[in-house]
Design goal:
Layout lengths: L1 H16 L8 E3 L5 E3 L10 E6 L12 E5 H8 L5 E3 L2 H34 L3 E5 L13 H12 L8 E2 L7 E10 L2 E11 L8 H13 L1
Parallel strand pairs: 6-9
Antiparallel strand pairs: 1-2, 3-4, 3-5, 7-8, 8-9
């Protein structure tokens, strides 16, 4: 019994001095018994590469690629429909869709640039208003007025929400802006004038005179 304890003490001290050389190696006692040293290893962390199908608070935005714990994906993200596993086929489809979106953005921008060129070369749009004292006009000119004129002269539909007009209270030439695209703005000239009187006294004056004459 004493010899066994002595052997165990000697082997333990030897293993402690040279731990790297004794992993998983058997220790032999004097009475030919063998003892194996078991070394515990840290469990490997399993991750999954995913893509988010929607915004997830404190995790990421829709379309974002990331690595998450396998359990988090399996127990929460996947059942809730928030993410899916990334595969080579999915990456290929994502690339094709990204290229399609970029091509569409380019096409929309080019169309806006062409339309801006039309607006800027067509000349000034003429707007008539009833005249007041001096250069003043009655009322004002609105975005809807400009939209209607563009439709009548160019057969183009324009959303009045993209129209920016200065305040117009007098006759003269003004510049309006059309925000056709986040990166494209067209400048449009407006020529504001007054209706010309038919005669010195006006049409209504002579019509009343004629009615009174016929009654007489």
């Amino acid at each position: 019994m004493a010899s066994t304890a002595s052997a165990l003490s000697w082997n333990s001290s030897t293993w402690l001095k040279n731990p790297l050389n004794n992993y998983n190696q058997p220790t032999k006692f004097s009475d030919d018994r063998m003892v194996c040293v078991v070394v515990a290893q840290k469990k490997a962390r399993k991750l999954r590469k995913i893509i988010l199908k929607e915004d997830v608070a404190e995790l990421g935005k829709k379309g974002q690629l990331m690595d998450v714990k396998a359990g988090y994906y399996r127990n929460y993200l996947h059942p809730m429909g928030m993410a899916q596993i990334v595969t080579p086929l999915l990456l290929k489809e994502m690339k094709i869709e990204e290229e399609r979106i970029e091509a569409e953005k380019k096409r929309v921008k080019e169309e806006a640039q062409q339309l801006a060129l039309v607006f800027e070369t067509v000349g000034a749009f003429k707007v008539k208003r009833k005249g007041g004292k001096g250069k003043q006009i009655f009322g004002t000119v609105t975005a809807q007025d400009l939209v209607d004129i563009i439709k009548a002269q160019l057969q183009r539909d324009v959303d009045k929400r993209i129209v920016s007009l200065p305040e117009i209270r007098e006759t003269g030439e003004y510049i309006a802006e059309l925000k056709l695209h986040p990166e494209v703005t067209a400048q449009v000239r407006l020529n504001i004038g007054c209706y010309e009187s038919e005669t010195k006294f006006g049409h209504d004056h002579w019509r009343n005179k004629m009615c009174n004459f016929l009654k007489w």
